Input
Amino acid sequence: MELPLLNRYELMWMIVLFDLPVIEKKERKEATKFRNFLLDNGFGMIQYSIYTKMFSGKDVCEKYYKMIKANLPSEGKVDIITITDRQYGNIISYQAAEKITKKQQEQLLLF
Output
């Protein structure tokens, strides 16, 4: 049986952006715990407070919305943005005034 490939409009990227206080030891500990939660759940770090993960569709993201909400630190701001793979591919990135070319994401196989 051959599995169908998802198109770039079905694949979704979840982007988690956060600004958490890190002045007090307790705040640093909570911020680290939240970052580790994201990493443990398959998110990759784009910048220190921006993490992303690819999903097979918007409905799969719902589970992660709830998981993130259940693991929010007591202080700070967390935003979640969900965009299609096509939209994610249109992001233009620069590092030290040099344009960065993104690698094409490999197709996910779902079982």
The longest helix spans residues 25-40.
